[in-house]
Design a protein that fits this description.
The chain has about 260 residues and is mostly helical. The chain has helices spanning about 5-20, 25-30, 40-65, 70-85, 90-100, 105-110, 115-130, 135-140, 150-160, 170-195, 200-225. The protein has one domain (about 20-245): Heme Oxygenase, Chain A, CATH 1.20.910.10. The longest helix has 29 residues, at about 200-225. The N and C termini lie far apart (about 60 Å). It catalyses: 6-(2-amino-2-carboxyethyl)-7,8-dioxo-1,2,3,4,7,8-hexahydroquinoline-2,4-dicarboxylate + 3 O2 = pyrroloquinoline quinone + 2 H2O2 + 2 H2O + H(+).
């Protein structure tokens, strides 16, 4: 069958974010609205770190089977953005600054102990997807970044308004991604639109993006189930106490 016109296909991809992106999850509404307890904020930081830490591993897996040097040159900046240099670090180190700001021991967070089983399964499935699927689908799965600037902006505004820990240093990860993500998504979107030249390939790319939204949504489902009343923390999940450095600064929302 004939492929959809380029503009129609792009609109199809963007519609996936309109209906399925995790900015619509109840946990994010709680977080951005100042309704999360500090235990719930910390649980989000602990579990989201696992996703952040696996992003450069996912991109390394992508590069390991990429035979096009131009594509490798364009893609490798994603690893640099997250891992950074030896001295200054990158997005992963900025996430650990957030962990420290919310009263967690960054060494504990970096250990990935306490990560919920569902979080681990979802993130590992994403890494495996990128390692194993056709290149077009691996790139298409990254296109959730089309929708990320909105959630980063909401998060910055909401955390600054509602939580005492929030300041420029604590939120540096999100501010930096507002500048980094546009170049990544511009390249990724152009690649998908250029290479999905049959309806079958377009369907596969759309399915890959849908899969990625499921990965993100399922992480929040796991958090909501484990830490929002009635809390049901599964075996191995963070217990709400390990790795916490208590201080009056962290006790709750800003007044």
């Amino acid at each position: 069958m004939t492929a959809q016109p380029r503009e129609t296909f792009e609109a199809r991809l963007r519609a996936i974010g309109e209906t399925r992106y995790h900015d619509k999850h109840p946990f994010h509404s709680m977080l951005h609205g100042g309704q999360c307890t500090m235990t719930q904020v910390r649980a989000w930081v602990v579990n989201r770190y696992y996703y952040q830490s696996r992003i450069p591993m996912k991109d390394a897996a992508f590069l390991s089977r990429c035979t096009d040097p131009d594509l490798r040159r364009a893609w490798r900046s994603r690893i640099e953005d997250h891992d950074g240099g030896v001295a200054e670090g990158g997005g992963i180190r900025r996430w650990l600054k957030l962990a420290e700001a919310v009263g967690l021991d960054p060494v504990y967070v970096a250990s990935t102990e306490g990560v919920l089983p569902a979080t681990r399964f979802a993130v590992d499935a994403y890494v495996a997807f990128v390692r194993e699927k056709p290149m077009l689908e691996a790139v298409a799965a990254s296109l959730t970044e089309l929708f990320a600037p909105k959630i980063h902006s909401q998060r910055i505004a909401g955390l600054l308004e509602h939580y005492a820990f929030a300041d420029d240093a604590a939120l540096s990860y999100f501010r930096t991604r507002l500048n980094e993500a546009p170049k990544d998504v511009a390249f990724g979107l152009a690649y998908v639109l250029d290479h999905a030249d049959t309806l079958e390939k377009q369907d596969a790319a759309a399915a890959a993006l849908t899969f990625k939204t499921d990965v993100l949504w399922s992480q929040l489902d796991a958090l909501h189930s484990a830490y929002v009343t009635p809390a049901r923390i599964p075996p191995g999940g963070w217990d709400g106490e390990t790795g916490v450095r208590e201080s009056a600064q962290y006790q709750g929302a800003a007044q």
